[in-house]
Amino acid sequence: MSAPDAPRVGVVVLTMGTRPDDLARGIRSVLDQRGVATDVVCVGNGWDPASADPPLPAGVKTLHLPENLGIPAGRNRGVPEVGGVVLFFLDDDAFLPSDTFLADGCRMLADRPELGLIQPRVVDPSGLASPRRWIPRIRKGDATHSSPVFSCWEGAVLMPRDVFDAAGGWADTFFYAHEGIELAWRVWDAGHVAWYAGDLEAGHPVIDQTRHDYYYRLNARNRVWLARRNLPTVLVPLYVGSWTAIQVLRWARNPSALKAWFGGWRAGWREHPGERRPMSWRTVWRMTRAGRPPIV
Predict the structure, then answer these.
(1) What DSSP string describes the chain?
(2) Which residues belong to any copy of the Glycosyltransferase 2-like domain (predicted)?
(3) What is the pTM of this model?
């Protein structure tokens, strides 16, 4: 039982119901947390968590989304279902190895009010080497080294609710890919810092990512939308141009990938990206001083 003054954390667990064992492990790791009070909802994206077999643990709320709304929209739908001044988002294949993870994270937020988002270090439970992409910075360095960041791995994210609200939540329209970049940018624009905590650990198995045309298309479309939604007008072509050059160099020997990518690139300009909230020039300067101007 948590102490009366323990921080209350609203936990949103997102699933499509395809990983029942992993889902059970993740939820159990949340319920086993010490030093906090948790309010947990399991959001089923196109699946009803109330039908889980075996049933989810007592006290875990369920939210059934009849159709798959996409990853960011699914997370957003879970937020009103939970209380707490701190929010924690957990994917169904991630879990918390330490039973003080949430208490440690809440203490970090309390001690450093400038922090608006925390992404932990991600470790494979079987001991496999973690992919470098899980460290959300250009100069990866030591995975245990903490630093400001300008994107996040979205599978385990802790943040104050008021910062989440100020940032406008996850980008509903993205469906998949780059929503962690936008959330981090908007945290910076809200006057806070997105933080990679190398001293906090989340578990997640190393999985070979399958790259398909749909992935390449959304990767490009959302890269354009990211710029159109969030950057001052003059920076939009600079950001999109730099990433276009990077992808052409990266996939020069994979013409099918480039074809799908440019299909998404064109869609990013033709289709409506949703709400535009350009960051202030003060935010551009803060991000630049912190090591990552929003042009690449």
Answers:
(1) ---TTSPEEEEEEEE-SS-HHHHHHHHHHHHT-SSSEEEEEEEEESS-GGG-SSPPPTT-EEEEESS---HHHHHHHHGGG---SEEEEEETT-B-SSTTHHHHHHHHHHH-TTEEEEEEEEE-TT-PPPPGGGS-SSS---TT--EE-SS--TTEEEEEHHHHHHHTSS-GGG-SSSHHHHHHHHHHHTT-EEEEEEEEEEE----PPPP-HHHHHHHHHHHHHHHHHHS-GGGHHHHHHHHHHHHHHHTTT-HHHHHHHHHHHHHHHHS--S---PPPHHHHHHHHHTT--TT-
(2) 18-164
(3) 0.96
